[in-house]
Amino acid sequence: MTDALVSLRGIVKHFGELVAIHDATLDIKPGEVHALVGENGAGKSTLMNILYGLLPPTSGAVVLRGKPVSFGGPAEAIAAGIGMVHQHFKLAPSFTVAENIILGAEPALSGGRLDLRTAERDTGDLSQRFGLDLDPRAIVSTLPVGLRQRVEILKALYRQAEILILDEPTAVLTPQETAELFITMRSLAKSGRSVVFITHKLREVLAVSDRISVMRQGRIVSTLDNSEVTADQIASLMVGRTVLLRVAKTEAKPRGGPTLEISNLSVSGDRGTPAVEDLSLTVRPGEIVGLAGVQGNGQDELVESIAGIRRSTAGRIAICGTVPTVGDPVASRRAGLAYVPADRAHVGLSLQSSIWENMAVGHLSAFRKGPFLAAAAARRRCRELIKRFDIRGAGEMTPAGALSGGNQQKVQLARELTRDARLIIAEQPSQGVDIGAIESIHRLLVAMRDEGRAVFVISADLDELMSLCDRLLVIYRGRIVGDIAAADADVEEIGRLMGGSNTDDQAPTRQEAHA
Amino acid sequence: MLSDIAFSSIRIATPLVFAALGGLYTFQAGILNIALDGFMIVAAFAAVGAAFATGSLTMGVLAGVLASMALAAVLALFNLRFRAHIFIAGIAVTFLAYGLTALLLKAIFDQDGVFASAAIPVFPALRIPGLADLPVLGPLLSGHTLLVYVAYLAVPVVAWTLYRTRWGLRVRMIGEAEDAALAAGVNVDAIKLQTMVISGFFCGLGGAYLSLGYVSLFAKQMTDERGLIALAAIFFAKGRPVATTLVALMFGVATALAVRLPQITGTAPQLLQIIPYAATILALVIVGIRANRSSTQNGWRFDT
Amino acid sequence: MTDRAAPRPHPVLPRLLRAVGPPLFALVVSFGLGGLLMAVLGKNPFTVYAVLLVGSLSGWPNLAVTLQLTTPLIFTGLAVAIAFRSGIWNIGVEGQMLMGALAAGIVGYAAPLPDWAMVPACLLAALAGGAAWAAIPALLRAYIGVNELVLCLMLNPIALLLTGYVSARVLKAPGPTNKLPDVVDAARLANFSLYSQLNTGIFIALACCALMALFNNGTVRGFEWKLIGLNARFANYGGIRVRRNVIGVMLVSGAIGGLAGAEQVLGVYGAFYDNFSPGYGFDGIAVAMLANSSPIGVLFSAFLFGALNSGSSVLQMELGISKYLVQVLQFIVVLILAARFTFSWRGWRRPLVASAPAVTLPMTLPAEQGTTEA
User: Fold this and answer.
1) Is residue B183 part of a domain?
2) Is residue C11 a part of any domain in this protein?
3) Neighbors of chain B with 3 or more C-beta pairs under 8 Å
4) Which of B169, B183, B297 comes nearest A106 by C-beta?
5) With a CB-CB cutoff of 8 Å, which residues 278-317 of chain A face chain B?
6) What is the pLDDT of residue B260?
7) What percent of chain A has pLDDT over 90?
8) In this complex, do C222 and A353 lie within 8 Å of one another by their Cβ atoms?
9) How much is the pTM?
10) Is pLDDT above 80 for A1?
11) Cα–Cα–Cα angle for C300, A372, C232, nearest 5°?
């Protein structure tokens, strides 16, 4: 207790009626890597945002070096030696590395003049001292993701951070980059700093951390030494019972020609760089195919181009044998697509609109009498679906934004699965959804498969994919690098594929060529 | 004739330059401040009122600048604190300023349209020794009033604050990546407020110049959309100080020609007055086409 | 998150209160501040407001003036409201109105048509003129992604200068005034009051509001337009053709704006006059915001501002207070309503995200396209 660098004591956080953090107590010691694990929505990020001054706690105390503190904002937390690297980088892309690092703590000459020379020298020195090789003058937008993360870490170190919070830092990294990050984390801990590592990937937790705190439903359920636990134990602490996600299902019986057939597809990302390159895949009726991969390897762009939300630059997508117009969501839907997007708040739902309105979208032709809208019929159907899909705590007039994540997901599913669609694409179906709802969502998808529809699941959660899917595809840098029957799937093997170690440009192929 | 037009272009462009300098601070900080005209009109009114009451030009300019900065603070309050949409709040503030000055013109000076008086002091023309004797340039650059020189000499100062100071780096980074600045502990709202108040300061000088330097009276809506033309110049030059000033000067030339050319050639003044707006639309379209070429989103762009 | 949300009953009274509360609040604050201002200037605010009330509503002559001034505000308010509801910031109604007026003015004096066809032809011309001017920002926004706000802002003065050019040079009527020749009598909208220029245009305005109310609440297209305003990404994902619909919204909005011009030309002035508008297009923003973009609400708020404008000329005569008091009141209302909408939605929508989005959300309709994604 006394040797803690920072302690969170009895933290409670309410958002309106919702209790996000429930009496959480956590000690961070100097020189340790402390993993904070838990499922999505367990309260990890909220707790760290309180420590970082982004959110005020409803009650409870933050004790720093033995003294209670209360941060009015990140600026005060930074001044107290706390740094945070967010999952989504907070960088100004057209500025240099040095400018990004010094922002907010710029060295200045008299009269408020910016001392860029000192800034570049200092940031250069800093990056070498921690073995994070970076050119201070490089423009951030030209750097790969791994290097941008280094900029973020250096930003915190430049501000003399003694406690560094890393929010899901590996989500965007390749295995190599992850390994480098872990080396950095260990060396930071060795220098006496504390690293708080937020994640839900158990293997990483065990690989790098000294102590592990598990969060579940807003509480810290346990804090353990790395040496005394196994991955299984952590997993059961996270979910509160020994699981794991084992989906009850029979063997897949794919039959008939492909429902989704993609050949030689290329798609550009938001910045115009290629995100999907020459990709081909098929999904057949009666099977669930999962797409595994590290985030940012082209999954989003691939799904968006199938849904017609994004234009492809080359190649062909066929849904149920027809080729919908490129970049036309209406055409994709008409061809037989039902799509459950990951971004419920911005893409899949209109949070201000009532549930019946959310459910009517995509079914408008059924509720059309000439130019008029048959709202009563749409409401009636909505009431039926609320019952059928067990959407709790809602009437048809409730705004979708008032629902929990799991129930919002069910609204999406109710709308999409009741379409007469042969192809179902579910993107991150369990993200931000409570365990109970995950099970029923998985059951629904399996039922769809058994009806003979083709189901394509994209998820960042490999465990989910391995238990839910019949076949796994692995995507790496916009290409499919593996196609494995789920029954034969081996975590290590898929991990290697996700990291790109089996791709053409790697050594094994060349050795084969020599032989 | 030509040097005559050039001389009056410099004069006519002065309030545009002031307003543009003010507007580009907020532009660089990522705020589309369209209330420049509103800031100027209150400044013009306050300047005439104070100068009339005290007989002092200094007091007049000071009053104008303070009034404009106060209005800017109100807009910042609504935009930053109450999260009002900047365009709607900007329009509201502008029309509020038009209405309020017309209301006070009637209430204080009992005038419906124009208030002029011999008691309002006038800025004298300054003959710059040395400069005045230069061939060609001399008559062009010498003989303006003080505020004209202030406007053009302010340009390098503005550029310096934005590109050479710590504060300027923060302003520019907020404009590009506000979340980065927030996460770095920069007080984003404070800096936005500062840029807005500086906007008010420069527009205040512009308004005071209009009513005390350019003419010596206050007329209802005398700003005559100069704030809008300044905004057009900012968009055209993407908020870079020197380029923005040059564009503002060009737009000043167009306006000067709108007054002069009809007398000679018979061209309709309206067609010349359209130039700044049309040029800006053209610039926006060209930028848009370039950006579009690299875009892969279908149909609708959601983020503009 | 857990399943915490209880079913929310939606009784009529609280819903009504939520709809009417904020506009009332804005009006109270605005009139309060206006009264304070009057008191500072040495006038009794109660006298001022009493004169405004009497001068606008007492007796048919005053009421007729009020209704005359209400008519253009219904059109422009409705035009703005149609666009706002779909999350589009059409602040170019002033220019669209001018173009509609010019079109009506030209057809009204020059078209060789039988008498019975004159009014419909002029109205159609105004619809087309307004829609055409709105098509510029609509197409540029839809196909090139240029910010429609900036475009509208620039297109307003261009419309004023272009119509000024036409009425001063190209089609100028003889005489000292910059105007087009008078429209033929058959093209006039009948005036039915001796005391004002109130004309049958007000019925067209009422009909437009009724039609739009029906359209908004009863048709599939109206549903789609609302959804685009609430969340355009969702609408696009759900198979609603956003680009096509947004262009449609802008064209309808511009066409209604054009009708505002036609009513002025055919009903009030009898010809197109250069610079005839005192800013009806901008007043329309105030009208639409007070009405929360509802067509029926537009009727009430247009009447309110029409009455204030009408009373203000009495105010000027009797108390020597500038009629611009009304403009001040009007835009205090806009300022306050602009503030209200964002913070009420924001607190609710983003409970777990601490950092604010870079661009403020639009307020009448919390549409998604106002935000930038990280």
Assistant:
1) yes
2) no
3) A, C
4) B169
5) 308-311, 313
6) 74
7) 23
8) no
9) 0.85
10) no
11) 75
CA torsion C24→C30→C31→C34, rounded to 10°?
Answer: 180
Query: Is residue A2 exposed (0-12), middle (13-18) or buried (19+ Cβ within 10 Å)?
Result: exposed
CB B71 within 8 A of CB B93: yes
Residues in A touching B180 (Cβ below 8 Å): 90-92, 100, 103
Q: Report the percent of chain B where pLDDT is more than 90.
A: 46
How confident is the model over A112-129, as a mean pLDDT?
Answer: 88
The better pLDDT of the pair A329, A463 is held by A329
At residue C374, the pLDDT reads: 28
User: Which class would CATH give A245-336+421-515?
Assistant: alpha beta
Residues of A within 8 A of C222 (CB-CB) are 373
Rounded to the nearest angstrom, the minimum Cα separation between C27 and chain A is: 26
Q: How far apart are CA C269 and CA C103, in angstroms?
A: 14
Question: Are A494 and A484 within 8 A, CB to CB?
Answer: yes
As for how many domains chain B has, the answer is 1
A394 chain-C contacts, CB cut-off 8 A? 5, 7
Both tokens of residue B253?
Answer: 């030339």
A318 at interface of B, judged by CB pairs closer than 8 A: no
* CATH number for the segment(s) A6-239: 3.40.50.300
Residues in chain A within 8 Å Cβ distance of C218: 372-373
Over the range C359-368, which residues count as b (16 or more CB within 10 Å of their CB) and which as e? bbbbbbbbbb
The answer as to whether B21 is a domain residue is yes
State which residues form the domain around C172: 20-370
A327 touches chain B (CB under 8 A): yes
**How far does B113 lie from chain A, in Å, by closest CA?**
46
Q: Is the pLDDT of residue C371 over 70?
A: no
CATH code, C305: 1.10.3470
Average pLDDT of chain B to the nearest whole number: 87
